[in-house]
């Protein structure tokens, strides 16, 4: 049993469609016995595998939030065998604020696992997911995008788990998801990740980046809607897979895939998403409008690759990522 303070009226073992709430006690000046109300839906029809889908881990990443809300309305229990658990705004305070991290505790949910039952709201949410939801799941997919500060080509993704069997299953799930690109993250992008939490429980996990720039990407949303149905068919939860799909596998092999500015200023990007670039090619000029006599600084790519991510915001600080690459594997 989990020692979580989170409570819910949902019954995860019940057939049918339940759309409800995870109540996280949050006592503040304006509400002494208040709760943070995290939305959740459970759609179940008999025994079978369980798919757990989450979005809003980062509140300014929207394609998954829109897609999961739509699926909660659209999928009927009679269509499926097994169980689907959907959380369209999993770090609710961040999602409502349209911000990457929670405004209550500055918590980044995808750095918070395994969480704490007695911690801040973000830590309590992480703990509930790891101690209650992940153990029920056969597959977990957490939907991301570039948020406000990055913009991605729509792509599914996974991170090496260190378990060859799990990684093989994640690759198969990515093929079923069928995004135009499927990205393999190098290890070491951070600690406290949901992918690491799922691996601790032997649960297959995939993710993805489906747009960004603080907007809802129509192309990214289409990829998510088709991909979820592909994964559900792959698991046997839906009877038939949607048409289309087919994916190109790419990876980020190291820090040299990232173009980072050594100076602050105004970024003029010289490339666009989807461009193939060479080592030494110009990535961006960094202008200094406050010192117009200065020549702009040139930031160049350190290796060849495909531009899969760019920064949409022109104003940059020293150390900001301007764009990054991936290569086929
Ligand atoms: Zn994210």
Helix content range = 10-25%
Q: Return the string of H and E elements.
A: EEEHEHHEEEHEHEHEEEEEEEEE
Structural class by secondary-structure content = alpha+beta
- Given as residue ranges, the uncertain stretches (5+ residues, pLDDT < 50) are none
Radius of gyration: 20 Å
Please summarize the sheet with the most strands: 14 strands, mixed
Termini separation comes to 42 Å
What molecules are bound to this protein?
Answer: zinc ion
Could you tell me the mean pLDDT?
96
Tell me, briefly, the overall form.
Answer: globular
Number of helices: 6
Proportion of beta-strand residues: 25-35%
Write a short abstract of this structure:
The chain has 329 residues and is α+β, with helices and mostly antiparallel strands. Helix content is 21%, strand content 29%. Helix 4 links the parallel strand 7 and strand 8 (181-185).
Word description of this protein:
It is globular, with a radius of gyration of 20 Å. The protein has helices at residues 63-74, 92-97, 121-133, 164-177, 194-200, 218-235, and strands at 16-25, 35-45, 50-55, 82-87, 139-143, 151-152, 155-159, 181-185, 204-209, 248-251, 258-260, 265-269, 276-277, 282-287, 297-300, 305-310, 315-316, 321-328. It has 329 residues and is of the alpha+beta class. The mean pLDDT is 96. Strands 1, 2, 3, 4, 5, 6, 7, 8, 9, 10, 11, 13, 16 and 18 form a 14-stranded mixed β-sheet that branches. It contains six helices and 18 strands. It binds zinc ion. Zinc ion binds at residues 57-58, 61, 144, 147. The site of zinc ion has 5 residues, from loops.
């Amino acid at each position: 049993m989990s020692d979580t303070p989170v409570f819910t009226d949902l019954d995860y073992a019940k057939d049918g469609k339940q759309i409800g709430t995870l109540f996280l006690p949050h006592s503040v000046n304006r509400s002494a016995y208040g709760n943070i109300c995290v939305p959740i839906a459970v759609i179940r029809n008999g025994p079978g595998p369980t798919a757990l889908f989450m979005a809003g881990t980062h509140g300014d990443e929207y394609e998954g939030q829109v897609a999961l809300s739509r699926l909660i309305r659209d999928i009927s229990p009679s269509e499926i065998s097994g169980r689907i658990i959907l959380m369209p705004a999993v770090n609710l305070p961040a999602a409502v604020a349209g911000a990457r991290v929670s405004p209550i505790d500055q918590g980044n949910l995808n750095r918070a696992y395994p969480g704490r039952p007695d911690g801040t709201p973000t830590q309590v949410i992480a703990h509930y997911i790891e101690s209650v939801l992940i153990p029920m799941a056969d597959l977990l997919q957490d939907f991301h995008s570039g948020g406000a500060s990055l913009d991605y080509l729509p792509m599914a993704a996974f991170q090496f788990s260190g378990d060859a069997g799990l990684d093989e299953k994640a690759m198969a799930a990515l093929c079923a998801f069928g995004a135009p690109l499927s990205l393999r993250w190098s290890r070491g992008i951070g600690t406290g990740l949901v992918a690491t939490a799922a691996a601790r429980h032997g649960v297959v996990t995939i993710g993805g980046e489906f747009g960004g720039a603080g907007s809802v990407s129509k192309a990214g949303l289409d990829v998510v809607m088709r991909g979820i149905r592909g994964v559900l068919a792959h698991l046997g939860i839906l009877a038939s897979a949607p048409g289309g799909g087919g994916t190109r596998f790419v990876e980020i092999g190291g820090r040299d895939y990232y173009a980072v500015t050594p100076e602050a200023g105004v970024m003029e990007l010289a490339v666009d998403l989807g461009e193939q670039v060479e080592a030494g090619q110009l990535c961006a000029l960094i202008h200094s409008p406050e010192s117009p006599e200065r020549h702009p600084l040139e930031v160049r790519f350190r290796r060849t690759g495909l531009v899969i991510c760019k920064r949409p915001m022109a104003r940059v600080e020293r150390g900001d990522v301007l764009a990054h690459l991936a290569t086929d594997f």
